[in-house]
Amino acid sequence: MKKHILVVDDEEDILELVEYNLRKAGYEVTTLASGSRVIAAVRERMPDLVVLDLMLPGLDGHELCSLLKNDPKTRAIPIVMLTAKSQESDVVVGLDLGADDYVTKPFSPKVLLARIQAVLRRKGNGQVDKENLVRVGDLVIHPGRHEVTIGVKSIDLTFTEFRVLHCLARRPGWVYSRAQIVDAVRGEGYAVTDRAVDVQIVGLRKKLGEYGKLIETVRGVGYRFKD
Length: 227
Prior knowledge:
alpha/beta; Rossmann fold; Arc Repressor Mutant, subunit A; 2 domains; 5-stranded parallel beta sheet; 4-stranded antiparallel beta sheet; 8 helices; 12 strands; 40% helix
């Protein structure tokens, strides 16, 4: 069965270019030129992946990404952001909201296709869901449910924060460089700055409260989960 990809962009030429290349590669494609119809379209027919522009009429890409990633029914849908906003702060915001990849305009259709295929492969592998529970005191990380709890309290993490935490916690004591964290969470070759990883760690520590101290900084190297 063909994978179904939803492409959202308000530039008609971009929509046509992306649709043409995706259909040529064997995907089924739905296109939308406005953010206001995305949620309804996703609920009507769940896509296997969403290519999402940031600057959209109606709801913008950041708002849509947040809505999709915070809804249990749509949280697992991979999102590839496609945008002209290429500043580091834009990348950080996109990652923090749970985007699975970030491609800037102008872009190569071949590169975009390769990124999409890589994201779909990672989803298909189900590597995170197959891991066992991680327990440290009252802290429980449940990969299958994409859920973190401390005692009876559920901790609200973004999609990316969860995957960074799970990456570190499943191998306590193991030191990960920032590049290794990005590779483990999103696959090799994902272009992102060290600052983006640091932002995820700061957010995690704050949300985990006293358990945030378990994420240790190894100066000059990266991070580890205290064993």
